[in-house]
Amino acid sequence: MFGLKLDWSLEVPDRYFTLENYEGGTARWCPSCGDHSVLSAVQKICRDAQIPPEKIASISGIGCSSRFPHYMHAYGFHSLHGRALPVACGVKARRPDLHVWVATGDGDCCSIGAGHWVHAIRYNMDMTVMVFDNSIYGLTKAQTSPTSPVGLKTNTHPRGAWLPPINIIQSTLGLTNASFVARTVDWNPPHLYETLKAAYAHKGLSFVHILQRCPQYTSAVWQELQRNPDLILLMTHEKGIPVDAAVSRMYKNQLSHDPSNINEARELANPGERMAIGLFYRDPDAPRYDEFTAQGMDMSADKKLEAISKELDRFAV
Ligand code: SF4
Fold this sequence. Notes:
The chain is of the alpha/beta class. The chain has helices spanning 35-49, 68-71, 84-94, 106-112, 114-123, 168-173, 189-201, 223-227, 245-250, 262-269, 289-293, 301-313, and strands spanning 56-60, 75-78, 99-105, 127-133, 180-185, 205-211, 232-236, 254-256, 275-282. The protein is built from 12 helices and 9 strands. Strands 2-1-3-4-6-5-9-7-8 form a 9-stranded mixed β-sheet, with helices on both faces. The structure holds iron/sulfur cluster. Iron/sulfur cluster binds next to loops.
């Protein structure tokens, strides 16, 4: 009748996940802390991608942002200071089926964890690394961090920090085998969401530098950028971070940057008049160490024993 055909073959998923399925404990960050926005974006991405919570691992080091795993309903590991990345690499090596989200801060990643930062970028294991940059050690109540701007008054430099800060993007782009390097800001939820979504979709280590508000200790650090969007340079490109009309309207300074162009990416990472946000660089073909460590993971117990015996036999007299 009326040519209407009902499709009874539509598959009803066994499980449908709502945002609540990804919510862990109540977040205890300060009100208006930018960490809340990042948590919310990650939970939305997990919901939109319908990732079963038992297929997610949230790994962190130490710092305010490193409380992240407590607020995700998923596997979590709140590790030691600076050790988020080696723990995440270990998890990915043994459980390649898990989607790994790493939460680390500017102090955690770029100071005590700097050695791990270098090698995790080189290993390029499939995970999303979020560096929450509030330019201060917030959890321990305001010490100078590697990204504190010159002149910032802190407990360790009451007259003002005096070393130039590390340029996180420039440093990462200088590391061997970087495969996805982006920057976003916590106060622009659509751009934050799209950046983290693209990072999640990338096969390899996606490194996302997030300018994060800390109203408690460094409210002035990113304030000018929030008040005056003309100080931001929005990178756009068909291979870059998707930009919707509202985001495009907000930032009048835009540049079409092809993220396969590493030289231009390095130039854009230089501190200039404007802070570039978007995707600096992407190499989908960079070798991934998790592809190597996953080899043999699907072997049966008998096959594993056989392989071990064969190896031991090489040393038998
Ligand atoms: Fe957030 Fe700063 Fe408070 Fe830490 S101290 S929770 S970074 S606002």
